Q: What sequence folds into this?
């Protein structure tokens, strides 16, 4: 029997692939979600009231059943008993496996500041949390979002739409520190401020103030920001507790080889929980993106079913729209000394391409993102670029790559 | 699978396909004279790119192992199981632009007005694709891959003979959307 722990896109993809590749062996997905598999990118919009929670459904237990996959909802895997090749669930049930996939994803990081556990302080990672925050916005007047990453900024704008006074506090000196450079961060900050959200960067949070048993403010930079709702969005970390307790090799995530296999040959890992090699730098990395999770889920399924397909690594990338500004960020967008950096600013858009040793290493498009994928795809193909000036031209297209 | 094929030699860069795509598939009036006044302005899902003389129309290739399908987190990017065509279910698109980020052809267009991804669906619910129907030079062809490969082979043979008589003249430049087939 194949057991997949985690219903996210890595686990869901792997289960589907296993069913196709090995139709005769049962496949079970274990998930602690209670109702259905949903799209996490909808959570801020659910808080904003733009969508009903049901609009985020990707797959129900019935959908899994129709595909011949058993989906156990509301079950947490509490222990991995490798000697017996079994998984112990929170309900006390025990499942034997032949091959196991850990697709346990990430968990939000809660900073160790005083008061972080007070009522009114939330993380946003599950549909349930989105519902709780939505309910809290009914009587809240002002909110502080800690962290200016993708989730933090999207949540801040959603809370603003619900009529709250919103302040974002970011410890690092810029917004979306992993996706933007300083100039792009300034541009995005302007767009977000135009929506009425206050942004403070380079400011660490010292404590959460609590008054009569509920959050009343956030202490940061020597000031107190009044808040009856606080969202902690400083980031996520790989959910690897199960693997660690079972003695499987881990770094920041679960260490896997190119077949997505862990240090236990019968246990695999994929998605946000897995730590793989970066194809360009050779460093161990957790790209933690949707396309990576799909790719790794496929490879894991192939390996579990006896195949020899390998995951060759994907460049870190992300795309999002925040405050009306579309954004695509791929690879090393900072660059380093000696790199050739092309920048074009036009009509409120910012486009940057980083070239190292004649090859593209990073793409950052803000405001105007068309063709970003064409240039981005050249990073992993490691193509030598002859005419670099064309890359940021508004007329650049795929045609430039095959023009004679 | 039936697809839209491009014969680069025949494209003159007139952009008729762009106009027809925008009018037929993205305007409310369905008439060019009225469509140009519409707001938002109708957008084409095919684009004629490249300098004059080597231009060609570029639209979604409906890749077999489509990266946009892998990248879409909302279930909006789908493939028609019978026709094999990929398309965006607009009601499910959340405008996250993961498909724009992933497509190596630049075939997905981020709609600034609607905040959703737009791309060619090969006019899968129409008798003939708007771009193919409108192309005045026959540079765009709709059909099965086998049929197109035969046409291509015949053409290559003819041009190869021509090349052998005039040294230094350009090679045949017909291409399917899998341009890697060239040279085989």
A:
């Amino acid at each position: 029997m194949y057991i997949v722990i985690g219903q996210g896109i890595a686990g869901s993809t792997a289960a589907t692939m296993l069913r196709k590749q090995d139709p005769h062996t049962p496949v079970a997905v274990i998930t602690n979600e209670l109702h259905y598999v949903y799209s996490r990118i909808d959570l801020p919009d659910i808080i904003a009231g733009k969508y009903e929670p049901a609009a985020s459904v990707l797959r129900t237990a019935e959908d899994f059943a129709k595909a011949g996959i058993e989906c156990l909802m509301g079950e947490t895997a509490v222990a991995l008993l490798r000697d017996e090749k079994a998984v112990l669930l929170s309900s006390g049930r025990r499942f034997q496996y032949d091959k196991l996939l850990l697709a346990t994803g990430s968990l939000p990081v809660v900073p160790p500041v005083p008061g972080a556990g007070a009522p009114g302080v939330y993380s946003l990672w599950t549909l349930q949390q989105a519902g709780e925050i939505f309910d809290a916005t009914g009587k809240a007047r002002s909110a502080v979002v800690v962290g200016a990453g993708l989730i933090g900024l999207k949540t801040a704008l959603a809370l603003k739409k619900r009529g709250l006074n919103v302040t974002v506090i970011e410890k690092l000196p810029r917004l979306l520190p992993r996706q933007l450079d300083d100039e792009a961060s300034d541009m995005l900050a302007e767009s977000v401020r135009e929506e009425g959200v206050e942004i403070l960067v380079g400011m660490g949070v010292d404590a959460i103030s609590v008054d009569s048993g509920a959050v009343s403010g956030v202490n940061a930079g020597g000031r107190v920001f009044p808040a009856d709702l606080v969202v902690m969005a400083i980031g996520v970390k790989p959910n690897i507790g199960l693997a660690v307790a079972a003695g499987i090799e881990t770094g920041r995530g679960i260490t896997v080889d190119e077949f997505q296999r862990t240090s236990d040959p019968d246990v695999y890992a994929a998605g946000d929980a897995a730590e793989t090699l970066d194809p360009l730098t050779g460093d161990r990395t957790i790209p933690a993106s949707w396309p990576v999770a799909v790719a790794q889920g496929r490879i894991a399924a192939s390996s579990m079913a006896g195949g020899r397909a390998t995951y060759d690594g994907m460049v870190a990338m992300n795309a999002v729209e925040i405050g009306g500004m579309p954004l695509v960020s791929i690879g090393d967008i900072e660059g380093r000394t000696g790199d050739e950096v092309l920048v074009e600013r036009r009509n409120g858009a910012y486009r940057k391409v980083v070239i190292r040793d004649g090859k593209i290493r990073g793409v950052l498009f803000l405001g105007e993102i068309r063709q970003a994928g064409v240039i981005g795809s050249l990073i992993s193909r490691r193509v030598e670029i002859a005419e670099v000036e064309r890359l940021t031209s508004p007329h650049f297209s795929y045609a430039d790559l095959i023009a004679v | 699978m039936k697809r839209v094929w491009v014969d680069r030699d025949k494209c003159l860069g007139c952009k008729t396909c762009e106009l027809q795509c925008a009018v037929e598939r993205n305007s409310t009036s369905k008439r060019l004279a009225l469509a140009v006044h519409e707001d938002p302005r109708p957008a084409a899902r095919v684009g004629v790119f490249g300098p004059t003389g080597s231009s060609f129309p570029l639209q979604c290739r409906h890749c077999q192992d489509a990266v946009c399908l892998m990248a879409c987190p909302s279930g909006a990017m789908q493939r028609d199981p019978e026709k094999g065509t990929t398309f965006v279910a607009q009601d499910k698109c959340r405008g996250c632009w993961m498909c724009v980020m992933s497509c190596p052809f630049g075939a997905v267009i981020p709609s600034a007005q609607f905040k959703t991804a737009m791309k060619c669906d090969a006019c899968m619910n129409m008798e003939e694709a708007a771009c193919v129907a409108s192309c005045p030079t026959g540079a765009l062809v709709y059909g099965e891959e086998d049929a197109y490969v035969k046409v291509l082979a015949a053409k290559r043979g003819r041009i190869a003979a021509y090349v052998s008589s005039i040294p230094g003249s350009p090679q045949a430049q017909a291409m399917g959307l899998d341009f890697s087939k060239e040279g085989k």
Q: What stands out?
A: The CA atoms of residues 94 and 116 of chain B lie 6 Å apart. Strands of chain B lie at 2-6, 47-49, 56-58, 77-79, 86-88, 109-110, 117-118, 140-144. Chain B touches chain A at residues 47, 49-51, 54-56, 58, 67, 70-75, 94-98, 100-106, 108-110, 112, 115, 170, 173, 175, 179 (CB under 8 Å).
